[in-house]
Amino acid sequence: MSFFKTVNSGVPIAIVGIVMFSAKAIMVKLAYKYQVDTVHLLLFRMLFSVPFYMLIAFYIKPQNPEKIQKRDYLWIVLFGFIGYYLASYFDFVGLKYIKAGLERIILFIYPTLVLLISKVFFKVPISKKQLIAILITYLGVIITFWGEVQFNNSNVYLGGFFIFLSALTYASYLVGSGWLIPKFGVVPFTSYAMIVSTICVVIHYLIVDGEAIFIYPYQVYILGFLMAIVSTLIPSFLVSSAIKKMGASNFSIIGSIGPISTIILAYFFLNEKLTMLQLLGTLIVIFGVAVVSYKKRVKL
Questions:
Q1: Has residue 15 been placed in a domain?
Q2: What is the pLDDT averaged over residues 207-222?
């Protein structure tokens, strides 16, 4: 009974956190209606959230400081650049061209990319069941993507490419940072990486753009604030708490509601609709990723 109580207590927290994360794509699409620049929008999200992460980094110290070496901080810079700056930038660019629901489906394949990257660079074996699950997952993506191409223009290919890059860079971050998190702890490591990411976004803005950012309607800044707090800061702690309560394996099962929640939110707030073919592809993707995630968690 204690096991079920532990799992059940984490389920509501997990669901709320996942739905909050899913709402990010909806807010980005809403902000684009005001002709906001991609870099500016990403900058708003980071600037609104970074003060909180700086406070967290100041008050919550690393978990095992005796194991931390100076070069570990250089690795944090690298993974903050890859996992939060690049992944977020590619995601925001991709959302200019494709639906929020399709974006979440493509992003959802990152566990399969983790397996493939681990295989290529670290020779981690992939079982037959995992390989079949990966093939099933990409079949679902192709079906969903094809269903969108039939009703949209060639920009869908460009948007899908950027979202795939986002999933790839985030998967690379997960593979590379796994050995650092036990040293720093999840919360300090995430805070450090987010601070690095914010610095990268500011540098990007100053070098590439540098134009005035206080030129948009107030709705853009409200959406930027909501992205920072409602879809970044709060859900990051909710998800960490849920994983702690119910375990990563159980959480991975609940995580499959991510694409579904985005599709539902996109239907109500963006008037996005999916065809039956796209819904079929979505279910196939969720099934394939669920198999991959479950297998991966068990082996760990």
A1: no
A2: 90
